[in-house]
Design goal:
Layout: E1 9-15, E2 18-25, E3 30-34, H1 42-53, E4 57-61, H2 73-85, H3 100-115, E5 120-125, H4 131-135, E6 141-147, H5 157-160, H6 167-180, E7 184-189, H7 197-207, E8 211-216, H8 245-261
Parallel strand pairs: 3-4, 3-5, 5-6, 6-7, 7-8
Antiparallel strand pairs: 1-2, 2-4
Length: about 270
């Protein structure tokens, strides 16, 4: 195992003849941490450690890339190419989720049975950001977080406001917002062209108070000097300083998870 994953245990999970590696750290209710491209980087592992320190089991499935490997442009390109040819990921479909979300829902149910608690949290990032919303159709998922959700890819103005979710699944999420008080958190940098503002506006229209948008100013004149190309809110672009907006975004996510999964813990 890579030194970047020190402290994690490794396992596998199989559902419908599809087996993938799983990495875990911590104890308590489960939070699925779905890595961004190119894979489970050291920064993704560090986020999972924060979840574990909070009192939860961070469960990190390896969906692409080499677990623990640091990102670089060549590695990112190779991982992206592998995803593009995979039948488990749907990059352009406007109103259907990627097939891999079925496997992830099964994993969430299994982790809930193993780790207990009120349910499971899911933090999706980038390519997997929207998976947290797709998984929220299952009542097992009680704390979904969409960090910089990029699917469907922004090819046309129509894609910009779509959610990679069927109408039936979207209706189910709305029902859970109304009946279960489900709250979905979304995070993005304002200048991130991969995560258009129209997508968050659509989520706000569809889910109302059930959607909390955390949008971090990355305009050219922003007060914190955040680059306009900033993308990875919780990992590569995180500045771990009390006054920084990415640190505030991180604390918002951890509080969301804590309230849903550890209601008796302050």
């Amino acid at each position: 195992m890579s030194s970047s994953l020190e402290g994690f245990t490794s396992d596998t999970f199989t559902w419908r003849d599809r087996t993938r590696p799983i990495y875990r750290i911590g104890t308590g209710p489960a939070v699925l941490v779905l890595a961004e491209l190119p894979g489970i980087t050291p920064a993704v592992a560090d986020f999972a450690r924060r979840v574990a320190r909070m009192g939860c089991t961070a469960v990190v499935p390896s969906l692409f890339g080499k677990p623990g490997k640091a990102p670089n442009q060549r590695y990112l390109a190779r991982s992206a190419m592998a995803v593009c040819v995979s039948r488990e990921f749907t990059l352009l479909a406007r109103r259907s989720s990627s097939p891999i979300t079925d496997w992830l829902r099964a994993l969430a149910r299994a982790e809930h049975r193993t780790n207990g608690g009120p349910g499971v949290g899911v933090v999706g990032m980038c390519l997997t950001g929207g998976f947290a919303l797709a998984m929220a159709v299952d009542e097992t998922v009680v704390a979904p977080v969409m960090s910089q959700p990029t699917l469907p890819l922004r090819i046309t103005p129509y894609h910009a406001r779509e959610l990679a979710l069927s109408e039936a699944d979207l209706a189910r999420v709305r029902e859970r917002v109304d009946v279960d008080d489900l709250c979905v958190i979304g995070l993005r940098f304002t200048g991130d062209r991969l995560v258009p503002r129209a997508r968050f506006a659509r989520l706000q229209r569809e889910l109302g108070d059930g959607f909390l948008a955390v949008e971090i100013d990355s305009s050219p004149t922003n007060a914190h000097g955040i680059d306009r190309s900033a993308h990875a809110v919780l990992t590569e672009e995180l500045v771990d300083e009390p006054s920084h907006p990415t640190r505030a975004a991180l604390e918002t996510v951890l509080l969301h998870l804590r309230k849903a999964l550890l209601p008796g813990v302050r």
